[in-house]
Amino acid sequence: MKTRVLIKEGEYRLSKAGVMDARIDSEELYCFLTGCDRVVLFLNKEQEADKETEEAYFKLIEKRAARVPLQHITGTQEFMGFEFKVSPDVLIPRQETEILVTEAARTLIEGRKSAAHAKAQKRGKLFRMFSSPPEYDVLDLCCGSGAIGVSLAKICEDISVTASDISKKALAIAGENARKNRVEIEFVCGDLFAAIKSGDQMDPKADPAAGSSGAGGSGRPLWPSRLQGKGSRVQRFDMIVSNPPYIKRSSIAVLQEEVKSHEPMLALDGGEDGLDYYRRIIDEAHDYLKSGGWLFLEIGFDQGEALRKMIMDTGRYSVPEIIHDLAGRDRVVKCRKKKPE
């Protein structure tokens, strides 16, 4: 069977199973199987595929037709131009979350320049020649795969990133992604800010070959605690970023099969109105932000006004800004901890 015909048959089977983007997925699975890219695929589309390749390809198609996410089959997802490992233990990074990272990175870079300029103006010409901007402490709360924290560490200079999650399996994946992308991040395990205050520090040098199963071949824990119960090295941050669970519980049943059956419910369920985690984060973040520190939250498409009111009612933050995605829907809310008057 010619490669072109093989992929067309794969597309047909995926379409019949109700898979969105069936053509793209059929091509992606062939590229994943053979190790070629789309250019090579296009150039070789009239070549004959051998029987072994046909059989292996249709096994992958069958798996995808069963609505297993493409990223769980390939094991990776691109985010902000970087490659991340994913598994059923973490939420697959979405393109929408790139808005959160882009806005947070822009704020960090602009803040760093402003701080450096202010110090230089205050201390004179000689200081300007030899000074460097300050290091910022950033917290990626509910880090999952680590996509947000790792991306910020790659994009922004002179930031120190702490990443926390309640799931040790998620932190194992996040640790692998930090190593893969060659950034140093401190990982702590615990429920929201409890991880910062008294959670388990996780060892970033744990055996990556152990995968995300929870134990290595020797039976040792995958991510043994380094400083059990001691919390993170940094207790107050210049910025907190988070993409917490925000799906209404009643809406989970109507999500795509790939999401509701294959991604961790812990990363999806935001309670009856989808706002449970926001209430906790907004209530507690003030105690973990430095004066004037930023809070960035990814939100659902219809949650902007609810978050704005929630933040304003505390009296602890600046007037929040709602950032929209390309379709004009609510996507990110940002505000600052008020400075003492």
Task: Characterise this structure.
The structure is a single chain. By secondary structure, the chain is α/β, with parallel strands linked by helices. The chain has 2 domains: 64 residues; 240 residues, Vaccinia Virus protein VP39 (Rossmann fold, 3-Layer(aba) Sandwich), CATH 3.40.50.150. It is 41% helix and 16% strand. The chain has 13 helices and 10 strands. Strands 6-5-4-3-7-8-10-9 form an 8-stranded mixed beta sheet, sandwiched between helices. It has a two-stranded antiparallel sheet with strand order 1-2. The longest helix is centred in the first third of the chain and has 27 residues. About 6% of the residues have low confidence.
Could you give the count of β-strands? 10
CATH topology of the largest domain: Rossmann fold
* Helical coverage, percent range: 40-55%
The CATH architecture term of the largest domain is: 3-Layer(aba) Sandwich
Query: What is the top-level CATH class of the largest domain?
Result: Alpha Beta
Described by strand count, sense and barrel closure, the largest sheet is: 8 strands, mixed
CATH superfamily of the largest domain: Vaccinia Virus protein VP39
Mean pLDDT: 89
* Elements, N to C (H/E): HHHHHEEHHEHEHEHEEHHEHEE
Spatial sequence of strands, sheet with the most strands: 6-5-4-3-7-8-10-9
What structural category characterises the helix and strand content? alpha/beta
The termini sit apart by 74 Å
Classify the beta-strand content into a percent band.
Answer: 15-25%
Q: What gyration radius follows from the Cα positions, in whole Å?
A: 22 Å
